[in-house]
C-alpha cells in the first residue's frame, strides 16, 4: 500500500481512537471472564527462515536467537525440553540478582516443552518467552506490579499472549515492571528491583523504562524473547539500555486487549528481541485484527516483516532492500556524552556506506520543544480517569507513583483540549514536515513517535563507559511513517549484517548476596528506592 494510503488510514484511525477513548478503556475489575474472540483473518502466515546457527548458540542454547533456536528444533539438533530447561536453570541461578521476573511458571513450561517435542504446534513451538506483568495470563497472577492488582488472577490470556501460545511459544514467567507501567521496575513502594543485565551489581545504571524485566530476561539469557508495552518509551528504551532490538509498532498493529491500561491512545504492545529478525518474527505472530480491540480493525494489511528483516546481499555486499532516505535531526550529534556521540557518528558512517541508503540532515519546526515537552502532560489525565474509583478508595494503593496520577486529576478540561490540539499539530509537523524529506528519522528518544502512535525501532550500536562500568550498551532509535515497520526492519537488518553488537551477551553475574547484605553494602549514590518526586519526574 502507498505511503499516502497508509497516512490516510492512520489519520482516520487516530481520530476514531481519540473519540472513543472513554468507551473502550477497561480495567481488570470490569473485565468479562470470556476469552478473547481471536481470528486469523488479516494475520500474515509466519514463515520461519532456516538460518545459519552461530557456534555460541550450538554450544549453549540460551545464546540462541528465536530464529536460531527454531532452526535447531526443526533439525532435531535440540529438544524443546532441553531449551526450556536451560533457560529455567539460568532463572534459578541468576534471577535473585537480576530480579527480572515477578513470577515464574516452571511446571507449566516443562509440560509445554514435553508436548512441543511430541508435536510442533506452530512457528514458535518450544521457544521460551517472558511476558510483561501487565498482560493477562490465564490462571497466573497478573499484578502490573501494583498494590491495586496484587491479588488479580485473570480468567483468560491477553490477545497477545494467546497468539504467542497458539504459535507454540512457552511462557517461562512474568516480567517485572514499573508500578502500573510508570517507571523503571521497582516494588510498588519504590524499592528498585530489576537491574541492567550488563551491570547487575550497580543499580544506578538505567535499565530502561517500565519493561525492564522483559528486557533483562532476554539480555540475561533467561528467555529467547519477550513482549512489553510502550506508552512513553518502554520498549525502545530498555532495548537500547540492554543491547536488544525492540520494535514498537504503529498504534493498532497489535492488540492491547487484556493489557492493564496506562493510556489507551498511547499504549502499544510489541517485542523486545535479540535482533531485527527475531523482532520481525515476534511481531508477525502478534500483529493483525482483533475484534476485542477496535484500534486493530480496518488497518492496512501486515507486510512481510520477516523478509524485510533478512539482509540483502548482492555480489557479497550488503545493501538495502529498497532505496531509503535516513533523516538526522539537529540534536542527534550534539546531545549526549562524548562516548555516545562517537558511537552515533560511527553508526551514521556505517549507514552511509550501505548501497541504497541516503543520509540527510533534517530540521525541526520552531515549536518542536513545546509540542513534544509541555503539551505531553495531557497524557496524565487520560491515565487517571479509569483509575478514579481506586483513587477515591485509597490513594495509598498507587504507592510511589501516586503523584503522577494526582497530576492527571488536576489537569483542567481546557488544558486537555489545548493539549489535544497541540498533539494534532505535532502530527502534522511530523507527517507533513520532517517525514516528507526522509523515509526513516533518527531520534535521541522515543518522543514524539510514541505520543503519535507511529512505529519506531530501537537497536544496539555499541558500548561506552558509565561510571565504574567499562561497557554499557548504547542504542539508537529509528522512527517511520504509519504501518512502515517493514522499512525500519530493512534498515536494522542491513546494519546488523555489517556489525556484531547485537550478538554480544553480558557476562554472568556474581553469586547473589542476600537482600539484607546488598542493602548494607550498597553505596550512598545507588538509588535503592525511588522517591515519589523521582517517580513522577521519570513517569511514562
Automatic annotation (TrEMBL):
It comes from the Bacteria. InterPro entries: Amidase (IPR000120), Amidase_dom (IPR023631), AS_sf (IPR036928), TAT_signal (IPR006311). PROSITE patterns: TAT. The keyword Signal applies. Keywords: Signal. Residues 82-383 form the Amidase domain. Residues 1-31 form the signal peptide. Pfam families: Amidase. This is Amidase. It comes from Dactylosporangium darangshiense. The lineage of its organism: Bacteria, Bacillati, Actinomycetota, Actinomycetes, Micromonosporales.
Amino acid at each position: 500500500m502507498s505511503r499516502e494510503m497508509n497516512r490516510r488510514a492512520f489519520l482516520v484511525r487516530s481520530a476514531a481512537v481519540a473519540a472513543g477513548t472513554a468507551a473502550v478503556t477497561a480495567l481488570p475489575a470490569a473485565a468479562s471472564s470470556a476469552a478473547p474472540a481471536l481470528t486469523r483473518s488479516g494475520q500474515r502466515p509466519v514463515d520461519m527462515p532456516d538460518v545459519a546457527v552461530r557456534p555460541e548458540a550450538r554450544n549453549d542454547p540460551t545464546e540462541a536467537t528465536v530464529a536460531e533456536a527454531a532452526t535447531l528444533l526443526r533439525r532435531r539438533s535440540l529438544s524443546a525440553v532441553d531449551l526450556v530447561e536451560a533457560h529455567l536453570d539460568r532463572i534459578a541461578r541468576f534471577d535473585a540478582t537480576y530480579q527480572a521476573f515477578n513470577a515464574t511458571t516452571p511446571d507449566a513450561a516443562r509440560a509445554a516443552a514435553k508436548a512441543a517435542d511430541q508435536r510442533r504446534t506452530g512457528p514458535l513451538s518450544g521457544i521460551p518467552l517472558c511476558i510483561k506483568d501487565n498482560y493477562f495470563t490465564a490462571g497466573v497472577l497478573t499484578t502490573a506490579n501494583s498494590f491495586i492488582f496484587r491479588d488479580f488472577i485473570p480468567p483468560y490470556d491477553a490477545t497477545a499472549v494467546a497468539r504467542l501460545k497458539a504459535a507454540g511459544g512457552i511462557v517461562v514467567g512474568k516480567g517485572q515492571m514499573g508500578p502500573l507501567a510508570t517507571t523503571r521496575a521497582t516494588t510498588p513502594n519504590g524499592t528498585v528491583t530489576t537491574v541492567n543485565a550488563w551491570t547487575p551489581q550497580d543499580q544506578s545504571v538505567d535499565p530502561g523504562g517500565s519493561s525492564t524485566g522483559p528486557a533483562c530476561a532476554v539480555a540475561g539469557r533467561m528467555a529467547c524473547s519477550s513482549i512489553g508495552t510502550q506508552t512513553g518509551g518502554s520498549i525502545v528504551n530498555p532495548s537500547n539500555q540492554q543491547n536488544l532490538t525492540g520494535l514498537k509498532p504503529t498504534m493498532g498493529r497489535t492488540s492491547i486487549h487484556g493489557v492493564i491500561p496506562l493510556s489507551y491512545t498511547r499504549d502499544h504492545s510489541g517485542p523486545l528481541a535479540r535482533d531485527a529478525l527475531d523482532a520481525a518474527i515476534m511481531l508477525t505472530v502478534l500483529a493483525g485484527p482483533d475484534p476485542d480491540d477496535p484500534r486493530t480493525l480496518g488497518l492496512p494489511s501486515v507486510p512481510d516483516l520477516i523478509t524485510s528483516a533478512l539482509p540483502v546481499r548482492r555480489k557479497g555486499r550488503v545493501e538495502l532492500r529498497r532505496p531509503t532516505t535516513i533523516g538526522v535531526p539537529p540534536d542527534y550529534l550534539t546531545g549526549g556524552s562524548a562516548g555516545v556521540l562517537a558511537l552515533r557518528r560511527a553508526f551514521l558512517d556505517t549507514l552511509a556506506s550501505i548501497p541504497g541508503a541516503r543520509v540527510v540532515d533534517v530540521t525541526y519546526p520552531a515549536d518542536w520543544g513545546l509540542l513534544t515537552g509541555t503539551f505531553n502532560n495531557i497524557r496524565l489525565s487520560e491515565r487517571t480517569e479509569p483509575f478514579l474509583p481506586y483513587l477515591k478508595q485509597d490513594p495509598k494503593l498507587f504507592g510511589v507513583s501516586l503523584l503522577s496520577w494526582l497530576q492527571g486529576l488536576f489537569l483542567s478540561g481546557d488544558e486537555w483540549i489545548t493539549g489535544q490540539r497541540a498533539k494534532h499539530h505535532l502530527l502534522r509537523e511530523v507527517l507533513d514536515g520532517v517525514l516528507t524529506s526522509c523515509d526513516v528519522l533518527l531520534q535521541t528518544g522515543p518522543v514524539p513517535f510514541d505520543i503519535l502512535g507511529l512505529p519506531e525501532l530501537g537497536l544496539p550500536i555499541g558500548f561506552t563507559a558509565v561510571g565504574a562500568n567499562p561497557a554499557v550498551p548504547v542504542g539508537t532509535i529509528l522512527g517511520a511513517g504509519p504501518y512502515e515497520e517493514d522499512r525500519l526492519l530493512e534498515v536494522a537488518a542491513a546494519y546488523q549484517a555489517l556489525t556484531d553488537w547485537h550478538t554480544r551477551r553480558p557476562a554472568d553475574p556474581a553469586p547473589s548476596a542476600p537482600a539484607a547484605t546488598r542493602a548494607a553494602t550498597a553505596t550512598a549514590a545507588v538509588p535503592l528506592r525511588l522517591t515519589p518526586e523521582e517517580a513522577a519526574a521519570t513517569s511514562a
